[in-house]
């Protein structure tokens, strides 16, 4: 901005002098505390969140863990015990020091102090070995040395929390009273700026609610449709009722993923940005009580595990997670370990709950001469109701039927195995489907061999059929099998050269959509599996998603902004590579042009 001339300044001063002398500014109020005033608000109450993040001077004990429950042995067996424990605990980091307290007679006291090179390694030990079953008589209890100071500072006098008044939310299941049984669906559009909820009426859907910037990323319905969850930088909000008022909110900064329990009693939120060091407590994964909005328990997250880390039983009574050589099952509402200890499973690779029973299916990989196996575990008794050994196994995928009548394990088998340093390479891959008949005596298992690559598998939700896409694109085939009591699954229909890569059964079975999504240009084919007639075909170009409504009357297809964004980014990179190559060749042509002209002459 240009500087004002001196004449302009003088003119302004004259104007100010001509103004009314009574127009004086009011005196500013005095914000000073009165003499003798003492503030009764502590810094902890005023800015506790900032104080917790204040850098602290470390005393070096953050990297020390205390292991209790260690076997008590005499002097002659101490060295052997040390070797066994060192082999176990050095998996989590570099051990710099270890101390075994001894009794006057030279025997161990049953606990050990181990120091690691840094605090993060000590946290990994806490997550991986707390509750570890060392043998049938000893289970480890692992704590950080700093935990003893934290627990020592607990107040002696406990003050009960003040009960909050009950808030009437109205009928949250009002949508079930719709005479035409029309369902609601939500749409996020205009690059996430708007969210709308529609009622699927005829001939056109009816708009129920539309709000700008209702969510910052995406929305998600609860399993029974009671709540609509929105994502925000500070946490999650649940909405419901006829006016979609806010029911409850959960504070979890940086949350990126949520998962409801099947009965909607609990909500699990995950934030990769949560820093547990700020509060000395786990913050990455939090389990909330939906009705009260209270935090029930928090956990650390393992970066190597895929989401969701916790998997729920069908009745919300149990939830489980997989660890290193163990399966941890927790019970509600105490949120403690079932029987106060994890289940030791050497080499566990994956697990899945039955949709209708408190039964877990898990599989264990091969180890030297020990074959892989699939185990059905009944809870809370921990009774192994069925074990199936598998040989030459590269990988397994487990698929439960929605009714819980069948379990299919897709087994990737190999003909040859070659170990290249730390990498394992398989050759001669072929596939088997192991079908468990859950409702029959002793749970018989049938095997179906498929030599081609399996692209997709899907059970009929209510029925006895399953569908498989196999082969290499674009020459993929779709085969339908039927499972009958006391018989091996039989193929009832095979479609050759079908351009599809996904299978979508209707909620009540019988009807299925064969979809060719993303790179297959959105080809759709509707099949009635009662007589295997093709009812209709269609195309939604570049479609990324297919969804049945709960009644099985409607199917929606969509081009997701997220999926489309990935495709656009991929094509942009290909175009950029093409432009770079074209520019490079043009420069080479320009450099060689004069030389070529000289050669021609």
Break the fold down into its secondary structure elements and pairings.
Layout: H1 6-17, H2 43-52, E1 64-68, H3 78-89, E2 95-99, E3 111-116, H4 119-129, E4 133-135, E5 138-139, E6 141-144, H5 145-152, E7 184-189, E8 194-199, E9 206-212, E10 219-221, E11 228-232, E12 235-240, E13 245-251, E14 257-260, E15 266-270, E16 285-289, E17 295-299, E18 311-312, E19 318-323, E20 326-331, E21 336-337, E22 343-344, E23 348-353, E24 359-364, E25 372-378, E26 383-390, E27 393-400, E28 406-413, E29 416-420, E30 423-427, E31 430-437, E32 445-450, E33 454-459, E34 465-470, E35 477-482, E36 490-495, E37 502-505, E38 511-516, E39 523-528, E40 533-539, E41 545-548, E42 555-558, H6 561-600
Antiparallel strand pairs: 1-3, 1-6, 2-3, 4-5, 7-8, 8-9, 10-11, 11-12, 12-13, 14-15, 15-16, 16-17, 18-19, 19-20, 20-21, 20-22, 23-24, 24-25, 25-26, 27-28, 28-31, 29-30, 31-32, 33-34, 34-35, 35-36, 37-38, 38-39, 39-40, 41-42
Q: What's the quick description here?
A:
The protein is of the alpha+beta class and 601 residues long.
Model description:
This protein has 601 residues and is α+β, with helices and mostly antiparallel strands. It folds into four domains: 64-150, Alpha-Beta Plaits; 171-309, Methylamine Dehydrogenase, Chain H; 344-451, no CATH class; 453-559, 6 Propeller (Neuraminidase). The chain contains six helices and 42 strands. Strands 18, 19, 20, 21 and 22 form a five-stranded antiparallel β-sheet that branches. It is globular, with a radius of gyration of 32 Å. It starts with 5 loop residues before the first helix and ends with a helix. Residues 63-147 form the RRM domain. Residues 15-43 have a biased composition (Acidic residues).
